[in-house]
Amino acid sequence: xxxxxxxxxxxxxxxxxxxxxxxxxxxxxxxxxxxxxxxxxxxxxxxxxxxxxxxxxxxxxxxxxxxxxxxxxxxxxxxxxxxxxxxxxxxxxxxxxxxxxxxxxxxxxxxxxxxxxxxxxxxxxxxxxxxxxxxxxxxxxxxxxxxxxxxx
Length: 152
Known about the structure:
The protein is mostly helical and 152 residues long. It has a domain of 69 residues. Helices cover 82% and strands 0% of the residues. Helix 2 runs antiparallel to helix 3, helix 3 runs antiparallel to helix 4 and helix 6 packs antiparallel against helix 7. The longest helix has 29 residues. The radius of gyration is 23 Å and the shape is elongated.
């Protein structure tokens, strides 16, 4: 006479051992799902570029996928249509700052900081700008802001 509980435990154990293989399939399925969602969101934004929520969702999917060029393009389109919150700006600035290695790329990040401080008044954005400038040795650019009659 066999023990039904023992058989179920064996089945559960054998299913559990297959989970490591299943997680790879799950990752592939997640990537496929992300790609489909990215395409749907891009299409929706093509039809209606003023859908704030769709930009946020698309940025999240592109960040997960590591699609940095597409992410940059979507963020630029988002900034063209809406003022961005400090959280969105800070995430964008962090991504670009990490990637900047040449003088041209660093100048591009400075330009992005310029755009951010004009778009959204935030102490956190200014703090990041100061830290980036100190780190990159471009503090002279910040000084012109602080001594400008139009400073905030």
